[in-house]
Amino acid sequence: MRRIEVTCILCPVGCRLTVTEEDGEWKVEGYGCRRGLAYGLEEAQNPSRVLITVIPVDDGELPVVPVKTSKPIPKNLLLKASKALAGLRVKAPVRLGQVIARNLLDLDVNIVATRSIKARRDRVEADGQK
Ligand code: SF4
Question: Which of 41, 67, 110, 127 has an alpha carbon within 20 to 30 A of 80's alpha carbon?
């Protein structure tokens, strides 16, 4: 028999769930509503997370832009996904929601900016003088 314990994070109640599997039959106990039942099964069968990180910005008013995956990815691929983003850079300006990288690890997931970053003022002025 397989058994995991997990806290439901879908609302502030934080129900403590016990998920068990025996002979292919999954059972969730401890949930306060149907959302917790689905969450418990997902966490046991296919845990996934949104990857949140930062990407260096060239010529930006800030040195990095925070980014995240457009949807959750399998938890066991988080490290591989982080490594795949190593070395990636983006040039300012960056727009909120801008796609920074497409189809990460062939998962049909994009990396998107979660804030805007303006170009450095001195770069904008230098470009204006060209
Ligand atoms: S099971 Fe329902 S009530 Fe309990 S923490 Fe999850 S969402 Fe909230």
Answer: 41
